[in-house]
């Protein structure tokens, strides 16, 4: 369905401001001509935008930066501090503003500085990045009634000690800088907990450096987990299933701090019209077909068929094949001549991704950088709509298991049995999922009933890809999936906190950020929130319309408290 997108005047002005480099690509035109064109276009857009804003009432005078600080006579405009651009570090400035917009990130940084056993004068030496970033975010979190500019130099110098190959004074990718910042924080924590010259035996035998008897109820492992596994840490499960025999070929658990999503493309450099963030997530977890995969289970099935077809049964061989557990590394093939077991050696497989653990802060990277057919780096242009409240539960491992549990319960009532698979695969997978939640310190009591059902019922023998023979679910069994599903009432909701937008070409340009700022009764008699547009040291208030018409590159969502 086509979606109508309302373009804000603020968005057009930002496009004009950061998009003038397009004119430089036109050859044969004088600099004077460029200036004339820029002036005419700027005046035209400005006058037209002002007329539209006044006529439709999209903006009040207080929304224009530099205008009166009052709207009516009771509502003030609040600001947060801007950040100096010390060369070309706008990519890092937007990341620090985005992290400051997430209410649980600053307390996470502060915890280790409060709980640790370092003296006050030792902290800047032992953990320079964490100290500098905590101090800067503390100032960025302050809601002010006037504009202020801060210097990010201390953070950049401290971060440079860990990412010497990543030049922080040149134009870089904001998503890459974000991951470098988090990895630097993790490296700093590891250096603090474990001496660099320690052996594995020393680490096991010696008491933990962070053990503090005065903090009752927290084990050494729990304290390490609290300080190392931050609010941005999530996990993804990757499962590879054979389409011929439905056995699980492999299962991997990977951690992530930023969810990389590829926009749906209409043409080489354009995003599909009407593309949404949910569409991108569905595309990310969609089944991926893998051809010519060597499946050991398929060979064993062929061997059993061969033995069963013989008039004289070889019970010893049949028992060996049926009891084999080393599917991919066994010597069962030596029991047969090459011409006895007819199997080409390859099968088709399906790879599926699921979110196994949802982080407290969800960072989404809409990967607009792409490669043209000529091998040139291009930027995917186009609008991708994103919601203010995002529900991540439908894309989680638990949601899929609940849907499949309902499916197999309904099919069992109708006498339809699941496909064959070794029961240990599903039990092992559910145990791994439980361990993920335990490592993260989350309460998994609410998943216990689901796990027990799946392990104690016949569903122990089904896979994550039940329809291995076809990608299309027959109409006759669609009601079995949708009917009575309990997953529809479950939610893991996130609230949008900031939006990062990039202007220009992939290898150059400028980053700016839209940041949601909440203020309470300490700042105003009328608690509420505002959206601010921050471009380095320039901070101005904008409407929600301007935020939700941005061509986002990075999105930061924070998990709602009732869904933690």
Runs in which pLDDT lies below 50 for 5 or more consecutive residues are 1-6, 21-29, 52-74, 203-217, 413-430, 435-486
Tell me the number of strands: 20
Work out the helix count: 18
Label the structural class. Answer: alpha+beta
Keywords for this structure?
single chain; 564 residues; alpha+beta; 4 domains; 18 helices; 20 strands; elongated
What is this structure's SSE topology?
Elements: H1 9-18, H2 31-56, E1 70-71, E2 75-76, E3 82-83, H3 90-100, H4 105-115, H5 123-126, H6 128-140, E4 149-150, H7 153-160, H8 174-193, H9 200-205, H10 220-228, E5 234-242, E6 248-256, E7 259-261, E8 265-267, E9 270-271, H11 277-285, E10 288-293, H12 296-309, H13 315-322, E11 347-357, E12 361-366, E13 369-371, E14 377-379, E15 389-391, H14 397-413, H15 423-439, H16 445-456, H17 478-482, E16 493-503, E17 510-519, E18 528-535, E19 538-542, H18 544-547, E20 552-559
Parallel strand pairs: 3-4, 7-12
Antiparallel strand pairs: 1-2, 5-6, 5-11, 8-9, 10-11, 12-20, 13-14, 15-16, 16-17, 16-20, 17-18, 18-19
Helix pairs in contact: 1-2, 3-6, 3-8, 4-6, 6-7, 12-13, 14-16
Structure description:
This protein is an alpha+beta fold. It has 4 domains: 9-82 and 493-563, no CATH class; 86-196 and 218-228, no CATH class; 234-293 and 349-358 and 397-489, no CATH class; 296-341, no CATH class. Helix content is 36%, strand content 19%. The chain has helices at 9-18, 31-56, 90-100, 105-115, 123-126, 128-140, 153-160, 174-193, 200-205, 220-228, 277-285, 296-309, 315-322, 397-413, 423-439, 445-456, 478-482, 544-547, and strands at 70-71, 75-76, 82-83, 149-150, 234-242, 248-256, 259-261, 265-267, 270-271, 288-293, 347-357, 361-366, 369-371, 377-379, 389-391, 493-503, 510-519, 528-535, 538-542, 552-559. Strands 7, 12, 15, 16, 17, 18, 19 and 20 form an 8-stranded mixed β-sheet that branches. Strands 6-5-11-10 form a 4-stranded antiparallel β-sheet. α3 (90-100) packs across α6, α6 packs antiparallel against α7 (153-160) and α12 (296-309) packs antiparallel against α13. The longest helix has 26 residues, at 31-56. The radius of gyration is 28 Å and the shape is elongated. Residues 1-6, 21-29, 52-74, 203-217, 413-430 and 435-486 have low confidence and may be disordered.
């Amino acid at each position: 369905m086509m979606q109508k997108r309302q373009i804000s005047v603020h968005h057009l002005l930002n496009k004009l401001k950061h998009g003038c480099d397009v004119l430089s690509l036109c050859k044969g035109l004088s600099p004077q001509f460029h200036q004339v064109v820029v002036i005419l276009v700027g005046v035209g857009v400005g006058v037209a935008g002002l007329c539209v804003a006044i006529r439709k009432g999209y903006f009040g005078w207080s929304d224009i930066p530099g205008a009166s600080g009052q709207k009516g006579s009771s509502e003030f405009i609040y600001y947060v501090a801007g950040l100096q651009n010390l060369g070309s570090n706008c990519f890092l400035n937007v990341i620090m503003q985005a992290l400051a917009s997430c209410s649980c990130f600053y307390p996470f940084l502060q915890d280790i500085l409060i709980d640790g056993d370092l003296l006050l004068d030792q902290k800047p030496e032992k953990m320079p990045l964490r100290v500098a970033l905590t101090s800067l975010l503390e100032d960025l979190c302050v809601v002010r009634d006037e504009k202020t500019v801060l210097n990010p130099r201390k953070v950049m110098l401290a971060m440079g000690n860990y990412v010497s190959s990543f030049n922080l004074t040149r134009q870089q990718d904001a998503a890459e800088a974000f991951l470098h910042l988090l990895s630097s924080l993790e490296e700093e924590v590891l250096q603090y907990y474990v001496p660099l010259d320690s052996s594995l035996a020393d680490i096991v035998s010696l008491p933990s450096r962070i053990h503090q008897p005065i903090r009752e109820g927290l084990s050494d492992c729990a304290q390490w987990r609290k300080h190392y596994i931050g609010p941005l840490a999530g996990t993804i499960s990757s499962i590879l299933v054979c389409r011929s025999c439905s056995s699980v070929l492999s299962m991997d658990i990977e951690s992530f701090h930023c969810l990389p999503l590829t926009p749906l493309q209409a043409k080489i450099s354009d995003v599909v019209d009407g593309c949404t963030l949910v569409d991108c997530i569905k595309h990310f977890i969609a089944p991926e077909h893998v051809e010519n995969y060597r499946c050991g289970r398929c060979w064993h099935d062929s061997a059993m068929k061969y033995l069963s077809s013989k008039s004289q049964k070889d019970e010893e061989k049949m028992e060996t094949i049926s009891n084999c557990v080393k599917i991919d590394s066994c010597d069962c093939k030596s029991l047969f001549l090459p011409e006895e077991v007819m199997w080409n050696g390859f099968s088709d497989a399906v790879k599926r991704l699921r979110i196994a653990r949802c982080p407290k802060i969800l960072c989404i990277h809409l990967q607009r950088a792409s490669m043209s057919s000529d091998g040139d780096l291009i930027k995917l242009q186009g609008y991708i709509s994103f919601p203010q409240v995002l529900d991540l539960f439908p894309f989680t491992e638990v949601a899929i298991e609940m849907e499949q549990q309902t499916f197999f319960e309904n099919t069992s009532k109708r006498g339809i049995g699941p496909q064959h698979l070794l029961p240990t695969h599903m039990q092992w997978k559910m145990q791994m999922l439980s361990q993920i939640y335990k490592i993260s310190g989350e309460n998994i009591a609410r998943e216990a009933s689901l796990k027990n059902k799946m392990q104690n019922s016949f569903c122990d023998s089904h896979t994550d890809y039940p329809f291995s023979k076809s990608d299309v679910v027959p109409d006759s069994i669609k009601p079995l999936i949708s009917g009575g599903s309990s997953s529809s009432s479950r939610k893991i909701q996130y609230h949008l906190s900031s939006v990062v937008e990039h202007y220009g070409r992939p290898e150059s340009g400028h980053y700016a950020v839209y940041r949601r700022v909440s203020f309470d009764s300490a700042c105003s008699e009328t608690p509420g929130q505002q959206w601010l547009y921050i471009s380095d040291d320039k901070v101005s208030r904008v409407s929600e319309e301007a935020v939700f018409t941005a061509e986002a590159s990075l999105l930061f969502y924070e998990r709602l408290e009732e869904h933690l």
